């Protein structure tokens, strides 16, 4: 009887733990891979145990932690800024990528890519100090709405991925953002929305200089944190090879391979595959934003975890929880 | 009687705390300034309270956390590397700063400054991956001895400053190194010796590229983290203005002024003034290494804390504790 009671308590215990971990993830291979990995590397008795100081996890942002369609959200911010400042810059009417922005030519803007986006951000904020810029982004995030979802952009974060970040942090992982997005733009919302502090946000940067107690932004690109530059950014900013990497596009492949090449630890690589045309968007090999082609082939061959959003996630966005 | 007992217990309690905080610091203004600052900003009832997430403290390394005479310790490492690799580089015999190194011309090497040092480090490690480099530094630190102190370089860290770092961390400050030293060199010993993880070490960097799962070092300078570039490095790496800054030279002045210009928080600036010719070294305005001239004037006018090593510190190095 005592034995039976103990057995019952134990099974309830296990059941309770299982239901609290990653609650917005459906049972299945993706969820199991994550949980099995975390349990293995945090168990001192396990051969794959990793000391807390080495539990470095890196996450891409656009398309991995929030949506990125029909264009990177930072682009919508930049478009609004270009329009607001256009009267001071008559030359923008005839110079790309500004011309496309002012003509609402979305295709032209998207064609200019991450580099065009950074040019726009650079040009619209030259001469401004970092703290003033942050205020402008925060104000925009409070008022702007996504063109088709008609919600604030920060509503469009992925609930299952937020749970994953919390789960890793609860298991003493140090979580970093390693994104092609502009660093100032990300710093304006990620600490509050994801709970990740500014010193763990790595992104693309513009040139700046120091003067009279302030950091002033210049209209020049310093570093584009994409593809092969993601491992370089990890080297400069973290100085330690990650053990877990999370992305959604070919731009994240090098970062994930750099993680996979860690010979000192068991590693985890996870791709978010956008397969849900109804609740989010469905795109991969042929998308101009968040293209996942070479990465998808590589991930399959190397048995990485590929999250099928439609199948693996109970909800996409946090606001769906309240329904 | 009960009241008396309580009073006794309380006073023992206070006495115990006071004697445990910064034990290698003599009573005096420097120690009091630090303790009063930390108490004020960590007390929720105090108008100067700072939330833990904003408790960012930045420390210079050379001359602030360990000695830097008769030359930056990294220079001794670089000299040993140049000599070890000289047979593969006949051109070094006629090219500065390598010529001076091979001729043991210390004056010539010191003249080449931090830039020369980085050239040497760059040239001796081009084509090497970061992890192999780290192993070489670790091996060197185990075996090399300081030319006049005849001790391993990592013995020459400042005990009172180690206590200060521990004290700040115990009070939920996030401590960062912001140094002109090479980032790979620092990462090879600071995590173990100071207990500060690699992602909180900011330094000068060389160019690198990513290839086949590895970060490969190039013989080019990327960023020299000195003077006005220290606030720039803080912007790129931390993304938040510090509230406390610790240095020892004019190279740290901009970083300390950037901290002082924080309008959101009470701040602390502290200069380590090398005044102890007997136990360490005495130098300031006229030194070619760790020159403290403009900074000393500025610090006096702005009532920053100026540590008089001779007067304020009971011991300089940890090994003195064992005497």
From TrEMBL, chains A, B:
It holds the Pfam family HAD. Pathway: Amino-acid biosynthesis; L-serine biosynthesis; L-serine from 3-phospho-D-glycerate: step 3/3. PANTHER family: PHOSPHOSERINE PHOSPHATASE. Residues 1-18 form the signal peptide. Its EC number is 3.1.3.3. CDD domains: HAD_like. The keyword Signal applies. This is phosphoserine phosphatase. InterPro entries: HAD-like_SerB (IPR050582), HAD-like_sf (IPR036412), HAD_sf (IPR023214). Its cofactor is Mg(2+). One of its GO terms (biological process) is L-serine biosynthetic process. Keywords: Amino-acid biosynthesis, Hydrolase, Magnesium, Metal-binding, Serine biosynthesis, Signal. It catalyses: O-phospho-D-serine + H2O = D-serine + phosphate; O-phospho-L-serine + H2O = L-serine + phosphate. GO terms for cellular component: cytoplasm. It comes from the Bacteria. One of its GO terms (molecular function) is magnesium ion binding.
